[in-house]
Amino acid sequence: MKQKSLVVLYTVVVLYLLGMCDVLHAQQPETPLVRLAELEIHPEKLEQYKIALKEEIEASIRLEPGVLNLLAVAVKGNPAQIRIFEVYANEAAYRAHLETPHFKKYKEGTQEMIKSLQLVETDPILLGKKTQ
Predict the structure, then answer these.
(1) Which of 16, 21, 43, 75 could crosslink 81 through cysteines, CB 3.0-4.6 Å?
(2) What is the rounded CA–CA span in Å between residue 23 and residue 14?
(3) What was the pLDDT predicted at 30?
(4) In this structure, are residues 93 and 33 in contact, taking their beta carbons and an 8 Å threshold?
(5) Phi, psi angle pair for 16, to nearest 5°
(6) CB 61 within 8 A of CB 88
(7) How far is residue 90 from each of residues 5, 34, 74, measured CA to CA in Å?
(8) How many CB atoms lie within 10 A of CB 94?
(9) pLDDT digit string (tens) for 54-109?
(10) Average pLDDT, the chain
(11) Do residues 89 and 65 touch, judged by C-beta distance below 8 A?
């Protein structure tokens, strides 16, 4: 009888600890996925590209809760050199973004406008922003 009680007690302790692990894991915030896209656009296609980029960024921010920030800038003195700072809630949000109709439209529609593209993976150190 004592052995059966120990098994029950052991089972209860293990289940409790497993539950605590889930609670502790749930309290840990996920690390956002942050990347920098470095693009060179064919100069004669730059205005078309900006229109497509604006559409894509506006749709992503409006429709995707996992897209936290998309900032597009041109290198000063070289407007065909575009940099896009991208922040996603996590890897899953980024993967979901790649499957959206507006992103696919952007990729297909700008393919011939882009001379080069390099994606720079990052390790976030500190992501600060003002709250309103």
Answers:
(1) 75
(2) 14
(3) 83
(4) yes
(5) -60, -45
(6) no
(7) 44, 9, 26
(8) 19
(9) 999 999 999 999 999 999 999 999 999 999 999 999 999 999 999 999 999 999 99
(10) 87
(11) yes
